[in-house]
Amino acid sequence: QVQLVESGGGLVQPGGSLRLSCAASGSFFSLYAMGWYRQAPGKQRELVARITKTRSTNYADSVKGRFTISRDNAKKMVYLQMNSLKPEDTAVYYCIRYNDDGPDYWGQGTQVTVSS
Hints:
Elements: E1 4-7, E2 10-12, E3 18-24, E4 34-39, E5 46-51, E6 57-59, E7 67-72, E8 77-82, E9 91-99, E10 102-106, E11 110-114
């Protein structure tokens, strides 16, 4: 059974930084692509960043240059470093695992609020 547990969310002022972490359980973590989605109130869930098993990355246009996704396979961890945060980054952030067909496991989410 796979579990994904996010941490690191909170309240931050505009222009500030947060680092989200996702702890994964289960086998063969290094073989899966991982990612972060977010969902703001009244909006659809959207992909924020994705990292493949070979560490190729892609980002939503809205976060390029500000967010960085990384992974530590030995620790079964995925991270999302978020800099220059904006109020529009306020959302619940979810860690996800991909199989060949798309996302197959989701974490419970962590709230990020950007406000002065």
